[in-house]
Each structure stands twice: as structure tokens, then as C-alpha cells.
Amino acid sequence: MPRGNRTLPDTVPLFPLPGAVLLPRTRLPLHIFEPRYLQMLDDALRSGERLIGMIQPIGEGLASIGTAGRISMFSENDDGRMMISLRAISRFRLVEVIEGFTPYLRGRVDWAPYRADLRAAVPDDPDFDRPGFMERLGRYMTAQDLSTDWNAAEEAGDELLINSLSMLLPLGVEEKQALLEAETLPERRQMLDGLMEYALHGGDDDEEMLH
User: Fold this and answer.
1) Is the pLDDT of residue 205 over 80?
2) What DSSP assignment string belongs to 53-81?
3) Most buried one in 17, 120, 178, 197, CB count within 10 A?
4) Which of 185, 188, 161 is nearest to 177 (CA)?
């Protein structure tokens, strides 16, 4: 799929990591230390695209949808571990897992369903009750004993706020996957708001919030 003057590749290295999702137009910091993933990082840095496909393990396999991020920053610790930052490029549909050629998994992917991810931005959510959402977020953060930079949260645009919270809040694998797969910003915002509200009411069966 074209991206500017370049074409996204048909295959990407896969980094399966539960609880780690990369949403459009966000960045994800990662600490890499396993030898196979250090090799993956080295191979990605040598390639022209510098892409890594973040994907969650689901059940006995992998989720059907992941996100490719471009390595935008990396640094090596004294013990050989690497700190990197991935900048989201596009979500993808996993067509096939390719095994055997490398110590890490690779995936044949389809970018077509997520062409909108390549845009610089999306319109704000016109029905977003931001004051009400921020009030619920404050109660949720207090209940979860979490802290945040409230000035940065207030200044963030709608998409950056919702996508960043979808990535950072302590939600389950299936919940994060559902947020990742939401087709529109309003859909993701409504789902995230519902998950917080449900947690505040002490619900113990979050599955119904994903439908």
C-alpha cells in the first residue's frame, strides 16, 4: 500500500506482546532484551522501512489485527538491552504467520482496510462530552491508584487523548484489542468510556462491554 512515495511491505516482523497495542498517530516505548527480538530489531534497523508489527497473543495464536510502527528512536543500555520508540504507521490484518526463516515470527499482512491510518490526523469527535469524560477519567484513575499529567491530558486533541488512554490504561488483552479494532474515533471513545464506567461500578464481567 502506498505511503507517500514508498510502498508498505507485504511482510513485517511480528512482536507478540500481551497488553501492548499501538494506536494510529501515537508512539509506543519498548524495552527489548530477548535475543530473538534484539535480532528482530537489528534486522528492522537494517531495512529501509524500519517497521515492527505489534500484535497481541490471543488464545493459542495471534490477534487478527495489529499495528506496524516505525522505529523512530533507539538507544542501547550498558547491559545490551535496547530502548526504542515506535511511531504508528498503520494497522494491518494478519493474513499468515511465516515461521522458520528468522528466530522471530514474521507476518504476511493486508494494509488495505486501514488506509485512513496513513492520514496526518482525523477530525475531532463532535459528540465528545469532554468535561464529563475527564471527570470519569479522574474517578477511574483514583480508583485504580494511577496518576497522570493532567495538563498534558487537557491539552491533547481528542484522538491523541483517546488513543493514548486506550494504550496506557490497565485494561485486559481482549479489551485493548477491541479498542484497537474500533473503526472510528467515536466508537473507540464510547467503548473506552463504557469500560471505565463499568469498572467504577465494580463490574466483574467486562466481556459485555466489548459488544
Assistant:
1) no
2) EEE-EETTEE-SEEEEEEEEEEEE-TTS-
3) 178
4) 188
